[in-house]
């Protein structure tokens, strides 16, 4: 497993957290995650778009068509009220898991 492989469910958390800031199209989400992680996390389209569809299916995000920065048609994703609640639950879970892992690694 490489350093950039993500634990199952972590990508969902990263997407939800990114969309909590503002609505974005898929490429923008991937770029933001890469940028904020200082290039440590690079999300490929083969992982990103299935995750976006899964989150939309669960009702945690919603999508609507709009124009991108270069005036191309793009699907913009935003967090729903249910998604905001899920983000809080995921952040709490992440805190518990990361604390437990840190204890084991000591």
TrEMBL record:
InterPro entries: Metal_resp_DNA-bind_regulator, Tscrpt_reg_PadR_acidobac-type, Tscrpt_reg_PadR_N, WH-like_DNA-bd_sf, WH_DNA-bd_sf. This is PadR family transcriptional regulator. It comes from the Bacteria. Residues 15-88 form the Transcription regulator PadR N-terminal domain. Pfam families: PadR. It comes from Acidicapsa dinghuensis.
């Amino acid at each position: 497993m490489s350093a950039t492989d993500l634990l199952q469910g972590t990508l969902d958390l990263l997407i939800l957290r990114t969309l909590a800031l503002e609505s974005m199209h898929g490429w923008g989400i991937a770029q933001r995650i890469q940028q904020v992680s200082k290039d440590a996390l690079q999300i490929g389209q083969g992982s990103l778009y299935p995750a976006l569809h899964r989150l939309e299916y669960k009702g945690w995000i919603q999508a609507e068509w709009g124009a991108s920065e270069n005036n191309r048609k793009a699907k913009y994703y935003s967090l729903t009220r249910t998604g905001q609640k899920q983000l809080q639950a995921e952040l709490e879970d992440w805190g518990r898991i990361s604390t437990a892992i840190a204890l084991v690694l000591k």
